[in-house]
């Protein structure tokens, strides 16, 4: 499946470009409807179908699918929101193909159309959804849910907004969603992703050059985006050529930096130094034999460690304790030519204002807030998670990774990815510390900020899926070798 995600506006441009290149709209619609019918035939045994059509081109796709399933002998009932006479353009053409047979009526959109149905094809609204579902459309969607009927959604489940996956009013929970040419953000962002079921991407004959011309800025995260630049160890390499991460460890919440350091080592950093309060050296050293544990009693001692240019990537925040001392360490790291990750308590330490950070940050730094930390640092920004992460990255000049079940990574230049492989088992204490450690480990090996954030988020999700139920944060670094072995086998192929 292609990784690009097209906004509704970009998809509109793709449709128009295809038509300008000589592919008529009716041909695109015929192929879209045929893909829907084919998906129904592939997934379900022959059964009575209720096709719910809306007043636009999404409804047009429904008319085509209805005709093709009826031609295959499936009992099909079709109901339309509005009047056939009010349909325009390609949708009117598609409706005429259905009504050409006198035994195929167009029913009013009322719940009775569901009687006897073993499958619902939801072709009410797709890209054109412009306001919340109300009236008969909402009634039908609610009734489909009450009856527990299987649903095949055309493009998106009706009520789900294509650009952000938000539900306007209500939307059905589909078993299968057939979308066209490229997926939209709604197929990967929550709650939309959870309502789509399985997503099938259908080729409707829009030439590939069209996507290149549109140059989309959003992708589903995966190794195809960054795998070619993954920093695998080289035969002629040695530990000093694999980077040296410096992790700042706290006095009380010592687990956070230990988890992060272990993840940085597993991600392949040649060396990891943890700078810790002197009274905790033994504790850190005993639990992490492969890390270098050095005492840093104060800010000056930490700066002395930073001054060694071989320590090329820095992690600040996990378990650090919010306040002036942490803020000073962050500004000291940013004053030097380093890359790094800012996480956890850093966001509280700079909650008063972004300016001191924004003045010094650049795109070899990655900020990894969850939603609460994000709002603390950037304020309550409007829009989808994609919009908000992009605006934050632009505002601070660094890569922003907004954590969650649909983690977004955004670069200040507007590129963004959505990560879809993270299981809910990752919602456990310390799992974010492991993510921060993975990213700093990759930065230490020379990956750029965007690649390191994307690769880190993806590896984190894969490690989480490998462990599955019962996962605790300690398991994640240990799951990494198997994940990396699989990644390497794919990358080498
Ligand atoms: N040539 C094309 O443009 C193609 C379009 N395709 C299909 O066309 C769809 C987009 O078609 P449209 O742009 O016509 O949009 P839709 O069919 O999604 O809906 C547009 C219509 O619904 C109305 N509407 C929006 N929200 C409403 C609400 N909550 N309650 C009542 N009415 C509402 C709008 O005023 C408009 O009349 C895609 O999702 C896809 O399924 C496919 O056939 C592929 C080719
Ligand atoms: N429901 C979920 N599904 C998938 N991943 C999740 C979910 N909830 C949280 N996560 C992931 O778990 C990690 C939690 O990080 P964080 O909130 O910083 O926890 P901690 O500070 O305890 O380490 C993040 O990577 C986040 O994306
Ligand atoms: K739909």
UniProtKB/TrEMBL annotation:
Source species, domain of life: Bacteria
E.C. no: 4.2.1.136, 5.1.99.6
Record-annotated YjeF N-terminal domain positions: 11-212
Matching InterPro entries: Carbohydrate_kinase_pred_CS, CARKD, Nnr, Ribokinase-like, YjeF_N_dom, YjeF_N_dom_sf
Residue positions binding K(+): 58, 122, 158
Residues engaged in binding AMP: 403-407, 432
UniProt-recorded name of the protein: Bifunctional NAD(P)H-hydrate repair enzyme
Organism, as annotated: Rhodocista pekingensis
Lineage of producing organism: Bacteria, Pseudomonadati, Pseudomonadota, Alphaproteobacteria, Rhodospirillales
């Amino acid at each position: 499946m292609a990784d690009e995600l097209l906004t509704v506006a970009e998809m509109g441009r793709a449709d128009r470009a295809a038509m300008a290149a000589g592919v008529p709209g009716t041909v695109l619609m015929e192929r879209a409807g045929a893909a829907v019918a084919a998906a129904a035939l592939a997934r379900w045994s022959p059964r009575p179908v209720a096709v719910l059509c809306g007043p636009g081109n999404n409804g047009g796709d429904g008319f085509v699918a209805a005709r093709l399933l009826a031609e295959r002998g499936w009992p099909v009932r079709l109901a339309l929101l509005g009047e056939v006479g009010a349909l325009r353009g390609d949708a009117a053409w598609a409706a005429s193909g259905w009504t050409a047979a006198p035994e195929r009526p167009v029913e009013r959109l009322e719940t009775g159309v569901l009687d006897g149905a073993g499958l619902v094809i939801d072709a009410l609204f797709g890209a054109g959804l412009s306001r919340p579902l109300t009236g008969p459309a909402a009634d039908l969607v609610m009734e489909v849910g009450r009856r527990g009927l299987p649903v095949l959604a055309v493009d998106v489940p009706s009520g789900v907004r294509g650009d952000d996956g938000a539900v306007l009013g209500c939307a059905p929970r589909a078993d299968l969603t057939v979308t066209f040419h490229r997926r939209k953000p709604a197929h990967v962002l929550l709650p939309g992703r959870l309502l789509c079921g399985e997503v099938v991407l259908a080729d409707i004959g829009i030439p590939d050059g069209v996507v290149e011309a549109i140059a989309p800025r959003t992708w589903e995260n995966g190794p195809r985006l960054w795998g070619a630049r993954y920093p695998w160890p080289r035969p002629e390499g040695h530990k000093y050529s694999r980077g040296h991460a410096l992790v700042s460890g706290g006095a009380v919440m010592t687990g956070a930096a230990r988890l992060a350091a272990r993840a940085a080592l597993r991600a392949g950093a040649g060396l990891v130094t943890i700078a810790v309060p002197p009274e905790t050296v033994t504790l850190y050293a005993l639990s992490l034999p492969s890390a270098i544990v050095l005492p840093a009693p104060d800010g000056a001692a930490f700066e002395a460690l930073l001054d060694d240019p071989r320590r090329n990537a820095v992690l600040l925040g996990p378990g650090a304790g919010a306040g002036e001392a942490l803020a000073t360490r962050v500004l000291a790291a940013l004053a030097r030519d380093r890359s790094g990750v800012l996480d956890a308590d850093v966001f509280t330490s700079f909650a008063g204002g972004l300016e001191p950070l924004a003045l010094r940050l650049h795109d070899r730094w990655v900020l990894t807030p969850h939603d609460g930390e994000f709002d603390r640092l950037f304020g309550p920004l409007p829009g989808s998670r994609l919009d908000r992460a992009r605006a934050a990255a632009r505002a601070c000049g660094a890569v922003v990774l907004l954590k969650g079940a649909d983690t977004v990574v955004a670069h200040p230049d507007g590129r963004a990815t959505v990560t879809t492989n993270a299981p809910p088992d990752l919602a456990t204490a310390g799992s974010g510390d492991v993510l921060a450690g993975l990213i700093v480990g990759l930065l230490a090996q020379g990956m750029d900020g965007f690649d390191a954030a994307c690769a880190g988020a993806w590896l984190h999700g894969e490690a989480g899926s490998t462990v599955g139920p019962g996962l605790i944060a300690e398991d994640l670094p240990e799951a990494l070798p198997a994940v990396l072995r699989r990644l390497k086998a794919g990358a080498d192929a």
